[in-house]
Amino acid sequence: MNDELHIYVLGPIDTWRGFTPLTHWRWGEETANVVLRALVAAVRAGFDGNLRPGEEIYLSGLPCGDDESNHVVVGLKQDNNGTVFLVSPVDLPYLKEQAIEYVRVAVPSFSLSTLRAIFNRAIPVPSPEEELRAIIARGRRQADA
How is the chain split into domains, by residue range? Predict the structure, then answer.
């Protein structure tokens, strides 16, 4: 797996067509890894960790072609000004034109034991909004490490 993630910082998005809220996504080890890596990358790109109330983390799958890995884009909407951070494992060149900022960051995958330690329980787990905020806080600590 390539450790590089592409972060597109965009203006506010109010309609998340094609995206699924994390609370409706199948939660498991792979999703936990994708979300945590995206949070660490977004924090490194300037995400302040405050999600807009009533909104959450959004996910969207990408076509993989012949590649067997699953590509998932993670969307985060910052509360203070509605800034959106889209984090993708593959480059999405068409978004660079719309982006306020584009950043590439290397964030390695987390081992299952690390994920279990971070989430303080076995994976899979349900992910209510309070837990998402805890995940963001942990992602910040990982980004600072």
Answer: 4-144
